[in-house]
Amino acid sequence: KQEVTQIPAALSVPEGENLVLNCSFTDSAIYNLQWFRQDPGKGLTSLLLIQSSQREQTSGRLNASLDKSSGRSTLYIAASQPGDSATYLCAVGNSGGSNYKLTFGKGTLLTVNP
Amino acid sequence: NAGVTQTPKFQVLKTGQSMTLQCAQDMNHEYMSWYRQDPGMGLRLIHYSVGAGITDQGEVPNGYNVSRSTTEDFPLRLLSAAPSQTSVYFCASNKWGVGYGYTFGSGTRLTVV
Predict the structure, then answer these.
(1) pLDDT tens digits, residue range B46-64?
(2) Nearest CA to A75 among A113, A23, A28?
(3) Interface mutation target, options A100, A101, A103, A108, chain B, most CBs of B under 10 Å
(4) DSSP B38-87
(5) Partner residue opposite B96 with nearest CB, options A32, A98, A102
(6) What distances in angstroms separate CA A93 from CA A29, A60, B49, B59, B96, one per listed residue?
């Protein structure tokens, strides 16, 4: 059974700092990995999608990496802003060569202080 | 496109009542799924569908039924609500193939008293 762990559970940083969120998974036979952002009381917003054959994806100040062999992904946020404050969720898509199930980590609660 | 639409956004039920959570997507996605989100537990898969007429159980299916008669709709039914089903429910959809990620609805917050 796939298990996804996110470390740290919570992180508080001053504005402008670069930071890294970590995600690890136990079964390397994944189809892809997706990072989401969730604001309090809201739904999930997709940030980045990395296919199993890719090493990284970038969008603006965000960069996600994937190392399938070691079962790890990182989300790098450059020059953090108070508006980045949210819970960040890592989800692994896997099963039978397709992507009809996601297994989620419990998330990292990020607070960026002005 | 509207994306994934969930209704209602909030609902309070009494123990033993039944209800249906609605989910619709207009992106012609083959895959649809239901998750519940609980504090300290993260998001867990309830049921999923890989196409019209095909459904299967996820990690926590007990107490829930689903059906998929069309590509667009994937309702979740609670037959006899229990306090343990108090949660936030999310519907999601995805397109088959490389390069497609999941799109989530805005959620339904359900309280069973």
Answers:
(1) 999 999 999 999 999 999 9
(2) A23
(3) A100
(4) ETTTEEEEEEEEEETTEEEE-SS-TTEEE--SSSSB--EEESS--GGG-E
(5) A98
(6) 9, 24, 15, 14, 12
Q: How far apart are CA A55 and CA A39, in angstroms?
A: 27
**pLDDT tens, A49-103?**
999 899 999 999 999 999 999 999 999 999 999 999 999 999 998 755 556 789 9
CA distances from A6 to A70, A90, A98, A109, B99 (A): 15, 7, 23, 10, 23
**Hey, are the CB atoms on A49 and B101 less than 8 Å from each other?**
yes
**Number of neighbouring beta carbons within 10 Å of residue A101:** 22
